Amino acid sequence: VQAGGVVESLMNAAVSDPNDTGVKVIVRMRPLNKKEIAEEATHVISKLSPNSLSLIDQQFTYDAVAGDDESQQAVFDMVGLPMVENCLAGFNSSIFAYGQTGSGKTHTMWGPMPDSGSELMATEERGVTPRVFEQLFSRIQQEERNNVDKQLRYQCRCSFLEIYNEQITDLLEPSQKNLMIREDTKTGVYVEGLSEEYVSNLEDVTRLLIRGLANRRVSSTAMNNESSRSHSVFTFVIESRSKSAAEGASSVRTSRMNLVDLAGSERQKQTGAAGERLKEAGNINKSLSQLGNVINILAEVAQNGKHRHIPYRDSRLTFLLQESLGGNAKLAMICAVSPASSCKTETLSTLRFAQRAKAMQNKAVVNEETANDVNLLREQIRQLKDELMRMK
Ligand code: ADP
Ligand code: MG
């Protein structure tokens, strides 16, 4: 009887893992802040187990719950580490941070925001994104060393953009404002005119970061409260080439890693907002509420299997990141919450959003192409030309 049980469970595991929908949802709670402590705020949420929590008398279960004492390293180990491995294996991978303003999204994705990117890369408190960079380059080096016989080579390029008021700004080239999203039948969705820069080590990325963060700062002083109203998207495109055993055949894997710090999820207070400000609030709601809509529909489709039109194109955010939502990508959603009683309503809304995100299903596949040498060389020539153009 016992042996049968083991065989049966092994077979079930081999047939399908019902928990692997390609979507991983983590809830992270921050500690009470000084203001909340001064106001003698009480905790309304508590972690019950490594993957469950309670809000007053309601219980919620996710893939993981990070308590208020969890370190940045521990959160990276939960989320960043597996996503880096996915990406190196050829899967598109995205990490989103969702939650109300002040819940810890930026702290989780980036760390304490200093004046420059180099400070950010150095601090012990650096968040998921800087750690993803480190891990990517260290694993790439390791993989290349271990696969010399296959002539395995990686090539990475990055872009960094912000969506504010339904407008896309290139943070690496901020004169490029209001960029448009296009769709190509072969390469998928892309931002027209967005700069992409080749990076081969941590120093290269740090340089980009210094530039990008400086540009973000400029715009945030110009626009009131901008950072809580904008979405930032850092994208890594990773390409690897290797020779397979078969004579003359080479394969190319391409995958992207999106690191997304979303705008605050709280309902925009309409009090006193008028004209431009009201329009702004409406637009910000558009990208975030469209994210909510798309996730709701996808969760429904996953549950009842009925085909439905998914309105990705109705906002910049969902159009740009459509692959990550129900498509060809692995997704990790970090939902950040405050433990304070004063945030109870928003926390509940975030916890419900997290449940719906968990219900959707992605269909990630390894993006690999096998090519003969001539095609591969043509492609390499094209890329080198591109690179030359960029350097001019
Ligand atoms: P958001 O980006 O969601 O608006 P922030 O990441 O800016 O929120 O966090 C708000 C404040 O709370 C910041 O001062 C941040 O340093 C602090 N904070 C957030 N999460 C944590 C945490 N897990 N541990 C310690 N401090 C945190
Ligand atoms: Mg923030």
From TrEMBL:
Keywords: ATP-binding, Coiled coil, Microtubule, Motor protein, Nucleotide-binding
Binding of ATP, residues: 99-106
GO CC annotation, single: phragmoplast
Residue span, Kinesin motor domain: 22-360
Single GO biological process annotation from the record: microtubule-based movement
Coiled-coil blocks: 367-392
Tree of life domain: Eukaryota
The keyword ATP-binding is annotated on this UniProt entry: yes
GO molecular function, one term: microtubule binding
Keyword Coiled coil: yes
Family in the record: Belongs to the TRAFAC class myosin-kinesin ATPase superfamily. Kinesin family. KIN-12 subfamily.
Protein name: Kinesin motor domain-containing protein
Organism phylogeny: Eukaryota, Viridiplantae, Streptophyta, Embryophyta, Bryophyta
